[in-house]
């Protein structure tokens, strides 16, 4: 089994595991207890806190441990919003933040009676600093409570301009919250954060530990039941054995971070280069250079993300996906959506710490066939092996049909990638300059039809939602060639 | 080392530990992932959920796993309050609930714009059902959102009348939240709960797992950031390996629960009987019969709780305490306060699963000397070995002084147990029928001076807080004999 979904979490790092098991025996008592086992647990906790604080670049008394990375994000967002509520009630949040950040911000603005402004991203998924600057310039708008910008994106890897954003915000005394889960233990912590959140699982630590750092002087106030543990910033106990495992894993990772990052970068660069050579009609997304070293995402036209994931699993490769068919919500990834890129047949590869070049080569070897399996040409298309099937595009309309000036395609009830497949198959049934209307109720169609146009050189004209067909949208495409 | 603080948590149960370690290798992937490791984690999680649900007496789809017992309580309280907010905004909570319940209820009433009513307890710490009935009868009062009553008390062991309370509440369709942390895995789950919370650490499971069960039909709504995992009732991930350890530990415990409870009951009964025989001026509190089998609390007049804990630790016994000097807040346990019992020199003994009779005998053997060390008679009192010191009471005033009709004792700035020691030493300086005023700013004095009166047969007249000395209270005692 080749595991390529490290961004979701990895098996426990060996050093971290060893520390954790030892601490199960040594640090199981409550660190607030006065007796010996309690004092020992307290010492272990203090040592772990010092070690992690040093690695994060903060003081020990600025750092608390939470029950998970999600909890760190939630408590960071809610605590900062509550603490800053008198100073400002507007929260600026990057469009491609992890959903835990977005959900926490949604709740925070409800609680403080404020509003949320989403900072748009460019095609690479990078936050537009100009939008942030505009927000800060608006004399008439509400004052900002804080802004939330991740260190790098968890789906596409693109690094965010954290320090530049922090400087902009600092001019107006507005704090910056940074979800650094993607880069902690891999890259230096970016400068300028007022609140920093991370997840031990993402750096090879055990489940059940998150980190939340709050710079001294930052207004921060509990928005949860009172609890005197962890400075009142965390509603719940500390899991001392897990924290020890987390601290040990982080230290082990940090010691190898540069070398590992270099190795990961080479491998993801190889993937970025080779995949479009091996697989037709594929879009590799995210910044090719300014990115976290271990993450790569690409989307395949006409392919089902779920089918691709399952086929890769059958071939012993574990990856994840941002396609709608792989999400419990059946909507496509908000990250890909914000970037305006193709979402169907999406695969995210994230390299585990000790991934080998052989693992990656094996993946490249099986990928083309896996994509073919995930491309349902058989649904009325060419047989496998024909030219049309080989290059991925659905078989075009039979040449004897005369192209029409207009065409309506009814794809209602068909889920991604079928609406786009239909469009791909039938575009030549309309004359050059003619218009196709694709009727669909699939949420991914809103994103993938424009992306298809971009990738195939056609013109996207827009969408209409006529009252006559509630819940259905008509996407208009003009055939350019 | 003899560990007698099981109520805070115990080392990981061996069966649970084994299951946990195996699951670290098998269940580390996200259970929502489509690939093999994810599906395996999902299967392990589902199996654990079924097992725990069966042991708790609920359906699998009524049960979610939280990040800790504290989180289960918080989310139980906040979710029930939010779900019931249209039906009622008043929350009734037992006076001796765990502080996590009280803090969560405080926040819940703020959020739903309601109020909290504390249900008083009797001298044993049992909730007065009459007060609950009155609350339900009050036509004019706000409707009840819910009531929170624990299965048994974590400090004194007294069982609460959960089922009777549930029946009362059910007549008006008001749900009952039960914090069952003290009894899960030891005693049958009481009937009638709508929301049930528990902590795996308390049943020998690993840290990082709580259980929250919500009966179908109970109005329950997330009061935290959206998160589709665990039915939206939990803002955060599931720790599959820890959950497996928790389920295995619970099953192992449940299999031995009856025999262990019997053994524990014999040992705590022994302690309840022997301690007053061995140690003078001691109050053993809580219901002697209707109690959890493994918990015992007693308070020692004239003793410092912290000194007693540390002396017992020096002698290799780990216990906990409800005395103010052992609390980070420097206030005495709210449980002992609500019961109106002595708080100084307080020791809570809670038996670990495999405690032996020898452990308990050894504890009884060292206790008298440990209490002597914790009783600072030397502070102006008899030397150790004299009659006065042997029976615990501070040396009385020298017989040549003539008793006065009134006496002021200035104990301002002196912390528990010094104000009571002063009172004990000098009560005979006032004539029979005369009044002593003890001036003190120690929070425990409010509870311990009345308790001292009760234990020594004197009359407690009440307290005054004159404006002339802000922050200081005068406690009035009449010498009866």
From TrEMBL, chains A, B:
It catalyses: (sulfur carrier)-H + L-cysteine = (sulfur carrier)-SH + L-alanine. One of its GO terms (molecular function) is transaminase activity. Residues 377-405 are annotated as: Disordered. PROSITE patterns: UPF0033. It comes from the Bacteria. Its cofactor is pyridoxal 5'-phosphate. Residues 409-433 form the UPF0033 domain. Residues 379-399 have a biased composition (Low complexity). Keywords: Aminotransferase, Transferase. The keyword RNA-binding does not apply. Belongs to the class-V pyridoxal-phosphate-dependent aminotransferase family. NifS/IscS subfamily. This is Aminotransferase class V-fold PLP-dependent enzyme. It comes from Actinospica durhamensis. The lineage of its organism: Bacteria, Bacillati, Actinomycetota, Actinomycetes, Catenulisporales.
